[in-house]
């Protein structure tokens, strides 16, 4: 989509970004950090305003986005690459421990685009490295999913699992209901309430509209599933 910077300026005010940042700090500290060692190299795909890169602890952080304005939100020390997650030519093969993306795949124009993103991610991951993704689940938000102008590709946790397996990933974990659809929905906004929500898994079954998938690159190169 053209003019991403303008669209996100309209969608996210400074107050919205500050609220999102507080929520992401808790999400990183209390949930996503479990997948990432402090010695890891992490690749933040479609990094947006950089909330994940800002709050996750890792030895090396690389961020990729099509929006040149994303660089301005990243903290010092994060390597920014302007470009598409479907073409990671600037990143060496087998050099990344963990790829991460959040609310990204739904913006892709086609399943073929997702295939290219996953193929490139598999290429840059080290053997045994993981792709951790959080995504809106159209199964549990069939109407709200389309309330965003830039949502194009509909996915459930199961269709995304198929895509990961087709690309050659081993599926390590699949959580079909995690957090609400967006930071403007019913997820508690204060950090202590977000922490309480994350520790109360039964609440995920009620409020969760996004899924989490973790795929692992095999230690040997298996051919992609036809």
Describe this structure in words.
This protein is of the alpha/beta class and 226 residues long. The protein has a seven-stranded mixed sheet with strand order 3-2-1-4-5-7-6. Strand 4, helix 4 and strand 5 form a beta-alpha-beta unit. The mean pLDDT is 90.
Task: Please give a handful of descriptors for the protein shown.
226 residues, seven-stranded mixed sheet
Unreliable stretches (pLDDT < 50, length at least 5) are none
User: Kindly, what is the distance between the CA atoms of the first and last residues, rounded to a whole number of angstroms?
Assistant: 29 Å
Order of helices and strands: HHEHEEEHEHEHHE
Summarize model confidence as the mean pLDDT: 90
Helix/strand structural class = alpha/beta
Shape call: globular
What is the strand arrangement across the widest sheet? 3-2-1-4-5-7-6
In percent, how helical is the residue content?
25-40%
Q: Describe the main β-sheet briefly.
A: 7 strands, mixed
Computed over alpha carbons, the radius of gyration is 16 Å
Per DSSP, the total helix count is: 7
Give me the count of strands.
7
Strand proportion: 15-25%
Note the topology.
Elements: H1 4-11, H2 14-30, E1 41-45, H3 51-55, E2 60-65, E3 79-82, E4 96-102, H4 111-124, E5 125-136, H5 157-167, E6 170-175, H6 191-199, H7 201-207, E7 210-216
Parallel strand pairs: 1-2, 1-4, 2-3, 4-5
Antiparallel strand pairs: 5-7, 6-7
Short description:
This protein has 226 residues and is α/β, with parallel strands linked by helices. The chain has seven helices and seven strands.
């Amino acid at each position: 989509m053209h003019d991403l910077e303008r669209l996100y300026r309209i969608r996210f005010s400074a107050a919205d970004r500050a609220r999102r940042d507080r929520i992401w700090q808790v999400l990183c500290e209390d949930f996503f950090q479990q997948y990432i060692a402090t010695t890891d190299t992490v690749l933040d795909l479609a990094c947006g305003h950089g909330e994940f890169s800002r709050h996750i602890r890792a030895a090396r952080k690389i961020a990729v986005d099509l929006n040149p304005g994303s660089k301005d939100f990243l903290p010092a020390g994060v390597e920014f690459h302007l470009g598409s997650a479907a073409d990671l030519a600037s990143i060496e093969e087998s050099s990344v421990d963990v790829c991460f993306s959040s609310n990204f795949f739904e913006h892709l124009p086609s399943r073929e685009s997702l295939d290219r993103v996953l193929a490139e991610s598999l290429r840059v991951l080290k053997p045994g490295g993981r792709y951790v993704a959080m995504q809106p689940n159209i199964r549990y938000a069939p109407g709200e999913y389309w309330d965003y102008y830039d949502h194009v590709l509909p996915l459930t946790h199961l269709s995304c699992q198929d895509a990961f397996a087709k690309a050659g990933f081993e599926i390590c974990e699949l959580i079909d209901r995690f957090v609400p659809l967006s930071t403007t929905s019913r997820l508690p906004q204060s950090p202590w309430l977000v922490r309480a929500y994350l520790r109360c898994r039964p609440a995920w079954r009620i409020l969760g509209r996004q899924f989490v998938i973790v795929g692992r690159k095999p230690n040997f190169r298996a051919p992609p599933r036809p």
